[in-house]
Amino acid sequence: MSALPVYRWRPAPDGYATRRQLRAAGLRPGGQDVAAQLERPRRRRGPLVAYLYRIDLAKPVRPMTPGRSAALAKANRARRTCHACRRDAGYVIPTALGTCVPCADTPLVGGS
Q: CA–CA separation, 51 vs 38, rounded Å?
């Protein structure tokens, strides 16, 4: 059994926020444990749960360093590069296609 306070989905008490709300405010949980949770009941499945953190214990988001910025740029570049034609597509390539749209639309030569 959990010792966390549980609140209904919408009216979260003042002083608590979800991770997304903290991030929007420029904060992060900073290693603190979950302080409470919101539950939204559902008909046929278990309730949806959102974890809440105390705003007064939250810490500021760490600033982006040049190394982290370069690593993020490299990762995003890899997600935009088509492995079939080796070009930057200019958008994140859909994983369902696996290649850029022009390569995916090109019919296979010498097919069955």
A: 6
Contact 99, 93 (CB under 8 A): yes
CB proximity list for 100: less than 8 A, separation 6 or greater: 82, 84, 85, 87, 89, 93
Strand partners, 50: 38
pLDDT given for residue 34 in this prediction: 96
Q: Which helix (H) or strand (E) holds 105?
A: helix 101-105
76, 43 in Cβ contact below 8 A? no
Q: Which residue matches tokens 């890899």?
A: 78
DSSP 9-78: SS-PPTTEE-HHHHHHTTEE-TTPPP-EEEEE--SSSPPEEEEEEESTT-EEPPPPPHHHHHHHHHHHHH
Structure tokens at 112: 């069955």
Per residue in 49-81, pLDDT (tens digit) is 999 999 999 999 999 999 999 999 999 999 999
